[in-house]
Amino acid sequence: VRATRSGEEVKSYVPSMGQIFLRRFQMVTQFRQAIDEGQVTVHYQPKVALPGKQVLGVEALVRWQHPEFGRVDPDEFVPAVEAAGLVGLLTSFVLDTALDRVRRWLDDGLRISVAVNLSVRNLADAEFPTRVAESLERFGVPGELLTLELTESDVMQDPGRALPILRELSDLGIELAVDDFGTGYSSLAYLRQLPVDQVKIDKSFVFGMGTDLGDLAVVRSIVELGHSLGLTVVAEGVEEDLARDQLEAMGCDVAQGYLISRPLAEDRLEAWLQARTVRSLGRTSESSGAV
Ligand code: C2E
Ligand code: MG
Ligand code: MG
Ligand code: MG
């Protein structure tokens, strides 16, 4: 830190619009190479059944360790990659990495599903379901062990175009989840018409439910609505025991959040799973003797 007048110091640490633009530009031009060089990886965040702690699946969350910028969050680079028309590449990479992981679990006798986040651009690609089907086949993973997550606003942006693609994906036996539920239009009437299997309550409501009666009411009504539509209800952002207990009392089906685990790199996830109850093929049992 240079000893200059404080006004100048602060200024030098706030990136200008030009710098932000340049950084985004660099990121999108380097993205393909970054995948080839292993800078882009997939972390996995466990999801557990309520009540209890049985591990049902994991969510695949992309990470980029950039040689110059350090760790770049998906909230920054995914929109840049989408805008550059490279999201097909991102989704294929994450999907293949995740299905390869599920395949090796199956080989070890473990039945763990994986959820992959889609971009709205995937829903505009008529070839997308075919590519997903090919990937499932290549890795020998049944569709029911794959969940695809979409936000409400992604689907609502162009429902006429998204709907046939969602139907095709659903016909592959894939589970479809509406992510960040409650933050968008909440077109409840529309949700009923979509071939959706799960709703994920947005973490902002889950964070607030211990202290804010409004958030608690939103969470409760999503659980009730989801169940009345025959959907599995997942809560994300479960950070505290209180939230977990409240969700369990409401009958929420699945919990995901830092209380259970942060997203983990593959090797750390393996160690985490060793100590947990996992669905094994054919029956339920401990994955190991440890607790
Ligand atoms: P999302 O799909 O809603 O994922 C959940 C986000 O919440 C993740 O952030 C996760 O790390 C974070 N999270 C989970 N539990 C907790 C908790 O208890 N407390 C807090 N504070 N945060 C929690 P992450 O990994 O930074 O991802 C952000 C978003 O980026 C994702 O939101 C998703 O929309 C997008 N994203 C991530 N990976 C991919 C990908 O492979 N493809 C696409 N298209 N988007 C992705
Ligand atoms: Mg998600
Ligand atoms: Mg979410
Ligand atoms: Mg999101």
From TrEMBL:
Segments forming domain EAL: 24-277
Organism whose genome encodes this protein: Saccharomonospora azurea NA-128
Record protein name field: Diguanylate cyclase (GGDEF) domain-containing protein
